[in-house]
User: What shape does this take?
Amino acid sequence: MKRFNSIISKGLAVAATLLLSLCAYGQDVQPEAQQTEIAPSFSPSRLNKEVLHSSMVGIGSSNVLDTYLSPYNYTGTDYRIQRETQRMTNLWKGRVSNQSFIDLNVAINENRPKTLDEYAGGLRYTQGWFYNFMGGNIVNPVERSSSRWNFAAGLAVSAYLGAVYIDRSGNNPAQAKADIMIDASGMVTYDMPIKRHHYLWRYQVSVPVMGIAFSPNYGQSYFEAFSLGHYDHNVLFAYPGNMPSMRHRLTLDIPIRRHVLRVGYVAQFNQSVFNHLKYHNYSHNFMIGFTKYLYRR
Assistant: This one.
């Protein structure tokens, strides 16, 4: 397992290098977005065509409990990739921004005696719409806002598909995870000028509010659920009472010549209690990547 973790770590290091190389390329092919300044010649009609792209890779800690598979916690290393796209829209007189977000993670864990390995992970895709308060611009606040502070809040639709697998013999060594949720989310940015450079802090928090989720019932096998077709409360209404979860993301954009390096911290606390089965997946990740701005045609 240590050798496998070493291979994954080296792979992430190579991925980070490639991301930074792409950052340099992106900056060269999109000079207009990087060199645009606030000036009378800038057309306000183009604000809704400005797009923010961010790509990050990260590594951190993982803590997973799934009582369908085991009554014990498994801890280890979490590997994560995130891709974000933001743009302003014409909705509500141009005050609404759109965010598209992809979050992919793989965790490699062990039980406390280090006798069993666990693999957990999944993909979450999110589409959100945010109202920008006080005439702010959450997409590019450094160039498009007159205030150092910018606030936005809204709703997002997120879909998750993942699994937890324990490397052991048995009838049920794996557990599928799936949900479709409506999330309440908020963002805040702070422009921190130092000399002639602008360092942008960005924080976002998301809380699942309601939706549907999949879960086997207590003692129900997947053979019964899928092969025999024995439905037993496997699709449930999810809300904070049975799925109290929260996702945090804090980043800092650092200008380096014509490039923008992004570093950050991601904390996710995903929990659920369905059909008398408890589950949690806690992770803390250090992230690094790049950010670039461009214009859609």
Q: What stands out?
A: Residues 281 and 296 are 37 Å apart (CA to CA). The first strand starts at residue 50 and ends at 66.
